[in-house]
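Hey, resending since the last one bounced:
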Amino acid sequence: MQSDADGNVRADLTVTNAWTVGKVSYIETATTDKIDYSDGVSCVAHMPYVFEHLEGTFTSQNSTSGTLSTDSITMDCNHGIGSLQFNAGKGSWTAQL
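The structure tokens again:
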């Protein structure tokens, strides 16, 4: 889809996190995800999906690292555009405290 129109995005996220000895877990789950463009095009994502999931361990007193993942996303759009598919993501992260 290509649109030069300005858009408004609404996304509601639910956050779940946990810290245990030496480990961290953080999950953002999208419960609403909609884009409304000024030209009348609207796209709505299939719900729910994991927007961001971090898992990690503390590698020292001041450092942590781990994996990051995101779900694939399907959005249905009006005006004959149909469905848009966004691939899942995977990676790693590090942080200094």
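The chain has a mean pLDDT of 91.

Sorry for the duplicate.
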